[in-house]
Every structure is written in C-alpha cells, then in structure tokens.
Automatic annotation (TrEMBL):
Organism the protein comes from: Aliiroseovarius salicola
Family statement drawn from the similarity comment of this UniProt entry: Belongs to the shikimate dehydrogenase family.
Domain (Quinate/shikimate 5-dehydrogenase/glutamyl-tRNA reductase) ranges: 129-197
Function: Involved in the biosynthesis of the chorismate, which leads to the biosynthesis of aromatic amino acids. Catalyzes the reversible NADPH linked reduction of 3-dehydroshikimate (DHSA) to yield shikimate (SA).
Keyword Cell membrane: no
Keyword Cytoplasm: no
Protein name: Shikimate dehydrogenase (NADP(+))
SUPFAM superfamilies from the UniProt entry: Aminoacid dehydrogenase-like, N-terminal domain, NAD(P)-binding Rossmann-fold domains
Length: 278
C-alpha cells in the first residue's frame, strides 16, 4: 500500500443508518482541512471478521465499532488496551502499519470529558455518584468514575443481579440498592448519571422519584435523543448543573480521530450543531 493514500476510517455496526459518527468525523475532516474519508458500514455478524481483516488492505487506518460488535472485536484484535479489556468491549480500532489491530475503548474518556467540559468545577471526588442502570453503558461509566476518584458509587438497576455482578467485578466502592430506592441515592449523590435507555425517544420515561435533586449536584444522561431528557429537565428546574449525552458521543470520538488523521480535533458548539443537522 502506498504511503500517500488518502486515509480512510469509518464505523461498523448493524444497523448503522442512525449513527451520528459520519457527520461528526466528516465535520472535523472538512473544517480542519485534512485529507481523509469516514464511511458508515453496515456489517452483519457473520462478516465481521472478514471485514476487519480486509479494511487495512483497502487503505483504512482504523474504524469505530458500534452495536452489536463492540464485544466481539476484542477477540479479533492483536492488542487490547487496559480500559477496553476492563469494559469487555471496544469502540475504536487502529490498524497499525505493522499489520496489528489495536482495540481501545474511549467511552469512559468521552463520559468524563463531557462532564469536565460541560460543567463549572465538577469535582468527582467531592462525594458519591448515583448511577442508574447496569448494562454496557453503565460498565463504562462506572470504570471511568472509579478511575477519576469518585469515593463511592450507589448503583440501582431494575434487575438487581446485573448491578451485583458489576459490584463484584469493580469492587468495594460500589453499593447496590434496589431500583425502588433510586430516589434515595439521587438524594445523596454529588454526581447523578442515567445510563438506562429510559427517557430516550420511543422508550418509557425514567420513573424514579426526583424530588431529591438540588443545587450543587451535577446530573447527566447518556441518552441524547431528546437532548434534554425528562431527568435533565427536572434537574435543571431543581437548580442542578446538567450535561446532556451528546457531548459524550462527541468526546469519545476525539482519540480515534487523532490517531487516524494525525490531528487532535476540538469539541465545539459548531460541531454540536453540525452533528444535530442545525
Ligand atoms: P446499554 O449497553 O445501552 O447499557 P443494555 O445492556 O441493554 O444497554 O442496558 C440497558 C439498561 O437500561 C439496563 O440497566 C436496563 O435494566 P435491566 O438490566 O433491568 O434490563 C435498563 N432498562 C431498560 N429498560 C428499562 C425499563 N423499562 N425499566 C428500568 N430499566 C430499564
């Protein structure tokens, strides 16, 4: 392969039509004046391995990976970062010049950067975090919160056993509470995170008592459609600092773009508007 080929990257998943990543990377490529293309690719599970082995030969420098392939790609990679191993999933692949496939997970990084840049003075060490939900997104959020020094995480999930499994995996700084007690943990937390799909367009609302929300708390939602979920609406009315979930998507894309295209992009208001099609 010629060294001067235009670098290609993209996102593989199934379905893929709704992915905002092509818009996001396309915006950066265009505004930063960099050569490159970022292409959405619908890849069914049966084709995953062949596609991943073929992409580097076709001039791809890497790709993002989304549902349902985030776990399986770990087995296809030659190198897995600690954070991807910890989460049991990867969202970013780098095809190295030596032919090795490097798998990383930047979801936790995106989550933390979104809170750091979307608030004034968020201090994860200032007190406990309340995390609602115990699925794949929760795992990334928990790992990231522990890494930045949250003293304690109160974790509530409809299916308690899934929360217990995360506690066993991540250790003693996690306290599991029943889903019906979600209101109580919100009351005690400095940082409140919804990692469930509740509140997303087409899904039921998050129905937990929110009267414990108060000024001084930072509240975020990984759901970004709508941008202001009912949880964030309530939190804003209660005087909390709120951070919507779109920023996590934008920030998680930064490390991959930098590796593939050679320059670190910025997350700006213009980028948000471009991704939202405004
Ligand atoms: P993701 O990878 O996006 O986290 P997931 O692994 O399917 O997706 O997890 C979805 C989360 O939303 C889970 O915490 C799920 O709770 P369960 O573990 O009990 O399934 C939560 N969730 C989805 N629908 C829910 C509902 N109607 N009520 C309460 N929690 C719900």
């Amino acid at each position: 392969m010629s060294e001067n080929r235009i670098p290609l990257a993209g996102v593989i998943g199934d379905p893929i039509e709704h992915s905002l990543s092509p818009r996001l990377h396309g915006y950066w490529l265009k505004t930063m004046g960099l050569p490159g293309h970022y292409i959405p690719m619908r890849v069914v599970a049966n084709d995953l391995e062949e596609v991943i082995r073929t992409l580097p030969k076709a001039g791809f420098v890497g790709c993002n990976v989304t549902i349902p392939h985030k776990e399986r790609v770990l087995q296809l990679a030659d190198l897995v970062t600690d954070r991807a191993a910890l989460m049991g999933a990867a969202n970013t692949l780098i095809f190295r010049k030596d032919g090795k496939i490097h798998a990383d997970n930047t979801d936790g990084y995106g989550f933390i950067e979104n809170l750091r840049q979307g608030t004034e003075g968020w201090d994860p060490k200032a007190g406990p975090a309340a995390v609602l939900g115990a699925g794949g997104a929760s795992r990334a959020v928990i790992a990231a919160l522990l890494e930045v020094g949250v003293p304690e995480i109160f974790l509530a999930n409809r299916t308690r056993t899934r929360a217990e499994a995360l506690r066993i995996e991540f250790g003693t700084r996690i306290t599991v509470v029943d889903w019906v007690q979600a209101g109580n943990i919100i009351d005690e937390a400095v940082t409140v995170v919804n990692t469930t799909s509740l509140g997303m367009v087409g899904n039921p609302e998050l129905r937990v008592p929110l009267d414990g929300l108060k000024p001084g708390q930072v509240v975020t939602d990984i759901v970004y459609a709508p941008l202001k979920t009912p949880l964030l609406e309530a939190a804003e009315q209660a005087g909390c600092q709120i951070v919507d979930g779109l920023g996590m998507l934008l920030h998680q894309a930064v490390p991959g773009f930098e590796r593939w295209f050679g320059q670190r992009p910025e997350v700006t208001e213009e980028l948000r508007n471009a991704v939202l099609g405004q």
